[in-house]
């Protein structure tokens, strides 16, 4: 009997072969490090997305050639939970894409809070801006267009919550820019730290997987912080300052 949360139920019935189903799930934001069945099960037992997030996800999955970059429902809800529990004043996101994760991170902003999100691709920034304008948080969202490494030093806030989700070779640099500006109970969440499982290869061959592994090592050795690597989606590294 077919498991109700197997790869089959997560795919349109027209996709008959396993390879077609895997490629469908990859495009639909399911990096294969987590089994597609487990991902489908997790999605079905995660609270549904708000209407605007559904709209962004639908648009991205049908119209964007890099739809797999979208955080998606499970990770998005996790970001939203952290934000609503923490009630941050200042949130930083590196890698806006079409705006999905930014709106999740904005969920818990305090009334005077600000979310700063950075995107280098004009086209994606325009898409995100359009969706932000439909959100009740629009007045609290500051979208910066350009290279994150140059923009971060121009922002003088103490960050309560940071989501790092851009070019993987930049992670160590972003981390070093952010740690001195992390608030006392601030949290950094770094995405794709399993890099589709490629960080576990020996030797690691891909440029991005190498950069991510170097980042994971860098954080592990840093006496200023401590971290937990969560196997959500493509891996999320949650980092905070060490208690003094
Ligand atoms: C994985 S996507 C972000 C996905 C988004 N956080 C979400 O969950 O929907 C990465 C984004 O980072 C942007 N990006 C890559 N390098 C960048 C850089 N150096 N500065 C700013 N944005 C960058 C890319 O254009 C892309 O839109």
TrEMBL record:
GO terms for biological process: methylation. It comes from Sediminibacterium goheungense. InterPro entries: Cation-dep_OMT, SAM-dependent_MTases_sf, SAM_O-MeTrfase. It comes from the Bacteria. This is Putative O-methyltransferase YrrM. Gene3D superfamilies: Vaccinia Virus protein VP39. GO terms for molecular function: O-methyltransferase activity; S-adenosylmethionine-dependent methyltransferase activity. Keywords: Methyltransferase, S-adenosyl-L-methionine, Transferase.
